[in-house]
Every structure is written in structure tokens, then in C-alpha cells.
Amino acid sequence: MLIYILRRILTMIPTLLVISFLIFFIIELPTGDYISNQIAVLRSTGEASSIAKLEFLRAEFALDRPFFERFLIWIGLWPGPHGFDGLIQGNWGWSFEFDKPVQAVVGPTLPLTIVLNAATILFVYIVSFPIGIYSATRQYSWGDYGFTFLGYIGLATPNFLLGLILLYFFNKWFGLSVGGLMASQYIDQPWSVDKVMSVLAHLIVPTIVIGTSGTAAMIRRLRANLLDELHKQYVTTARAKGLSEGRLLMKYPLRMALNPFISDIGNLIPSMVSGSVIVSVVLNLPTVGPVLLNALQAQDQFLAGFILLFVAVLTLVGMLISDILLAILDPRIRLGGRAAT
If you placed Cys at 318, which of 25, 214, 266, 332 could pair as Cys (CB 3.0 to 4.6 Å)? Predict the structure, then answer.
């Protein structure tokens, strides 16, 4: 098992390198960059002194170098104006839009983004797991029809609309402040028990809003997988031998049906980050979603590139967790990996 985990971790290194190249390539596809756009604006207004400053910044951040050289400098595999000073060395880059290091821009939002995504994934699995089992074992019952109807509503309702509705009722019924991930008095304050409790209270609405569509899809997937297993010959044989329904369900069909259910952990993370951008703007959530949107609009390449790479790292970590859980659940995965080597 340890060798399997180490092998999966080692494969993440070249994967991250390829992903970082694709991110950098896609960000560089639009004509120009942030500084080029600013220089064009200043030339139209005739401000020569500011143009000289921007030209200095272009050379300072190696934007005047060839494409592959800029990419390697950004990663930290090629010496730039300040030597080897890239992502590998801990330099996240400079945000031209905010005029400060990327670390200072996204630093406060990264922990909250991770907490929100972790809470949403837990919500998706905690809710969808029992409902999916119930719907599969009681096919065509009133409960199955009811959960199916609610699932379709969850898939069809826009997240931002559901967020506005929940914010209204939570504020009316529980007095929860609208927007944000904590009460205003705790912003920029040291962490304390009261601040943690405020964050947990404010996580309820965005977790439900962002996780609703994923929960509905996961319920349908688990229900279909489990129904497929329950109609197989080995289940009929086990019933004929007198095995109880509860033991039969837990020992064989449920374990087989959980494979695609667990493997979706890695796929949930990027979909939640990308799907929560509008929700984060509407609910005023201090996550990386709105920052990424502004960075892409302003062609702030270092800021946008780091956030996209951060999402890729979260995705790979999620896939690693799902692979480990799958290896524990189904030993054939480990044996298959050993046979391949």
C-alpha cells in the first residue's frame, strides 16, 4: 500500500509540470499582457514618464523574454532577472492589478477556499450517500420519487438564485448576516474560538448552495450504480442462500457501487471552484473565485496562473485521496498496479 501511495505521489510531479505549462500557454494566448495594455493606454494619452516605468517593469518581470524562457522563469527552472526565483523557490509572482505580491493578494483567501471546498465535499457525500442507498433499495417508492424530484430541482435551480433565497430566510429566521464567511467584527482579527464559530455559522449557506447540484448528481449516480449491482446474478444467488438483505447489501453490492462514487472526489473540486465564482460574487465570499475572475479580465497573468495552478493542486490531491480510498475499498486496484509494474 505504501509503494502504491508513493508511486501515485511521484506521478503528480510530471502531471503538475504539464498542467503548469498548459495554464501558462492558455493565459498567454490573448494578444498582449497587463503591462502592454497599460502602455497602449498611456501612449494614447501621451504620458511618456509612466511608459518608461512600465517598460522597466516589463524587463523586471522577464515579460520581454521568449515564451518558453518566461515559462521556465515562472516555474523557477530558469534564471530570471533575480536568478532562480519562481514557484519552486516559493515566489508566487507579482500581481500588476493589485500592485503587490500574489501571496499578499490570495494569502487570506486560500485557507477559506480550502475550508469551503472541504465542507462542501463533506456535505455532498453525507447527504447523497444515505439518500442514494435509500432510493436504490426502495426503487419506485414514494420516497424514491420524492428524492428524485428534489434532485431535479437541485440540478435545475441556478446556484446564485438559491443563494439569494437562503440568505433571505437565514437572515430572517436566524439573524445571520448576509454575505461573507464571518461576521464583520472578526475580519482582519486574530483567530479565536468566537471567530471559528462565526465561520462555521456562515459556512452553512454557501455549502448548501454550492453543493446542491453536486449532491443531486451524486445521488443519481450512486442510485444507478447500486441498482445495477442489485440486479446481478451473484446477488440473486446470495439471496437464495438465505443471506440477510442488510448483510448482503453491505458486503457486496454497495462496495462495488462505491467505486465510481469515491472516484469523483477529485472531479468535484475543480467543478466547485469554477461553479462557485458567481456564487462567491453574489454572496460576497472571500474566496479565490472572484480574484480569479478579476485576474482573467485584467490579464494579470501571474495572479491568474497561480490560482489555476492552486486549483490543479487541489484536484490532484483530491484524486490522490480518492485513489487511496479506492485501493482500501477494492484490493484489485493495488494488485492491478503491482502486476503492471
Answer: 266
Q: Encode 223-284 in three state secondary structure.
A: HHHHHHHHCCHHHHHHHHCCCCHHHHHHHCHHHHHHHHHHHCHHHHHHHHHHHCHHHHHHHC
Whole-angstrom distance, CA of residue 45 vs CA of residue 34: 17
- End-to-end Cα spacing for the chain: 14
Per-residue pLDDT tens digits for 34-82: 887 777 777 776 666 677 777 777 888 888 888 899 999 999 999 988 8
The CA distance from 49 to 43, in Å, is 10
Q: Which of 99-113, 256-270, 276-290 has the highest mean pLDDT?
A: 99-113
Q: Which three cell numbers stand for residue 294?
A: 478579476
Cα 268 to Cα 122: distance, rounded to the nearest angstrom = 11
Tell me the Ramachandran region of residue 174: left when phi exceeds 0, alpha when psi lies from -120 to 50, beta otherwise.
alpha
